[in-house]
Amino acid sequence: MCAYRPAVADSADCVGMVMDNICRKCFGKMKPGKAIQQTYTGYPDFPNCAVVTLSPGGPGRLVDCDKCEKCGHSVATEGDGE
Ligand SMILES: [Zn+2]
Protein backbone atom coordinates (compact mmCIF):
# COMPACT_ATOMS: atom_id res chain seq x y z
CA MET A 1 0.00 0.00 0.00
CA CYS A 2 0.99 3.56 -0.35
CA ALA A 3 0.15 5.22 2.89
CA TYR A 4 3.07 7.56 3.18
CA ARG A 5 2.81 10.15 5.88
CA PRO A 6 5.48 12.73 6.64
CA ALA A 7 7.18 12.20 9.97
CA VAL A 8 6.90 15.84 10.85
CA ALA A 9 4.43 15.23 13.63
CA ASP A 10 6.71 12.66 15.23
CA SER A 11 9.87 14.66 14.89
CA ALA A 12 8.43 17.61 16.70
CA ASP A 13 7.25 16.43 20.08
CA CYS A 14 5.88 19.85 20.56
CA VAL A 15 2.25 19.72 19.64
CA GLY A 16 -1.01 20.52 21.29
CA MET A 17 -1.97 23.27 23.63
CA VAL A 18 -0.70 23.95 27.10
CA MET A 19 -3.16 24.47 29.92
CA ASP A 20 -2.03 26.43 32.96
CA ASN A 21 1.51 25.04 32.69
CA ILE A 22 0.36 21.66 33.93
CA CYS A 23 1.40 18.51 32.13
CA ARG A 24 -1.63 16.78 30.71
CA LYS A 25 0.08 13.41 30.97
CA CYS A 26 1.38 13.34 34.52
CA PHE A 27 0.10 16.68 35.83
CA GLY A 28 3.64 17.70 36.63
CA LYS A 29 5.00 21.19 36.44
CA MET A 30 5.79 22.58 33.01
CA LYS A 31 8.87 24.69 32.39
CA PRO A 32 8.97 27.16 29.50
CA GLY A 33 11.60 26.56 26.88
CA LYS A 34 12.44 26.48 23.23
CA ALA A 35 12.37 23.63 20.78
CA ILE A 36 13.56 23.26 17.24
CA GLN A 37 10.75 22.05 15.07
CA GLN A 38 12.57 20.38 12.22
CA THR A 39 11.03 20.40 8.83
CA TYR A 40 11.49 17.35 6.67
CA THR A 41 11.52 16.63 3.02
CA GLY A 42 10.62 13.19 1.75
CA TYR A 43 11.34 11.49 -1.52
CA PRO A 44 9.95 8.07 -2.47
CA ASP A 45 12.89 5.80 -3.20
CA PHE A 46 10.71 3.78 -5.55
CA PRO A 47 7.67 4.66 -7.61
CA ASN A 48 5.49 2.34 -5.56
CA CYS A 49 6.21 4.21 -2.33
CA ALA A 50 7.67 1.07 -0.70
CA VAL A 51 10.49 3.07 0.81
CA VAL A 52 10.57 6.73 1.55
CA THR A 53 13.69 8.55 2.52
CA LEU A 54 13.14 11.44 4.85
CA SER A 55 15.85 13.98 5.29
CA PRO A 56 15.91 17.20 7.20
CA GLY A 57 14.96 19.97 4.88
CA GLY A 58 14.56 23.64 5.33
CA PRO A 59 15.89 25.65 8.22
CA GLY A 60 13.47 24.28 10.75
CA ARG A 61 11.98 26.76 13.11
CA LEU A 62 12.26 27.71 16.73
CA VAL A 63 9.08 27.32 18.67
CA ASP A 64 8.10 28.15 22.21
CA CYS A 65 7.44 25.10 24.29
CA ASP A 66 6.56 24.12 27.77
CA LYS A 67 8.36 21.01 28.89
CA CYS A 68 7.31 18.82 31.76
CA GLU A 69 9.89 18.49 34.54
CA LYS A 70 8.67 15.01 35.34
CA CYS A 71 8.00 13.10 32.16
CA GLY A 72 9.52 15.41 29.59
CA HIS A 73 6.29 15.85 27.69
CA SER A 74 6.37 19.11 25.80
CA VAL A 75 3.71 21.20 24.18
CA ALA A 76 3.80 24.22 21.98
CA THR A 77 2.69 27.43 23.56
CA GLU A 78 2.09 29.33 20.38
CA GLY A 79 -1.49 29.24 19.24
CA ASP A 80 -1.06 29.79 15.53
CA GLY A 81 0.54 26.47 14.69
CA GLU A 82 -1.14 24.20 12.20
ZN1 LIG B 1 4.54 15.21 32.52
Summarize the entry for a quick read.
By secondary structure, the chain is mostly beta strands. The protein is built from one helix and five strands.
Kindly describe this structure:
By secondary structure, the protein is mostly beta strands. It has one domain. It has 1 helix and 5 strands, in the order αβββββ. The protein has one helix at 8-11; strands spanning 30-37, 40-44, 52-56, 61-68, 74-76. β2 (40-44) and β3 form a beta hairpin. The two termini are 27 Å apart. Mean pLDDT is 70; it is low at 7-12. Zinc ion binds at residues 23, 25-26, 28, 68, 70-71, 73.
Helix/strand class = mainly beta
**Which shape, going by the Cα principal axes?**
elongated
Alpha-carbon distance between the termini? Answer: 27 Å
Order of helices and strands: HEEEEE
Report strand order across the widest sheet: 1-4-5
Q: List the ions, cofactors and other small molecules found in this model.
A: zinc ion
The proportion of residues forming helix, as a percent range, comes to under 10%
Report mean pLDDT, rounded to a whole number. Answer: 70
Count of alpha/pi helices: 1
Q: Tell how many strands the DSSP assignment holds.
A: 5
Cα Rg: 16 Å
Number of domains: 1
Beta-strand residue percentage = 35-45%
Major sheet: size, sense and barrel closure? Answer: 3 strands, antiparallel
Low-confidence sequence ranges:
7-12
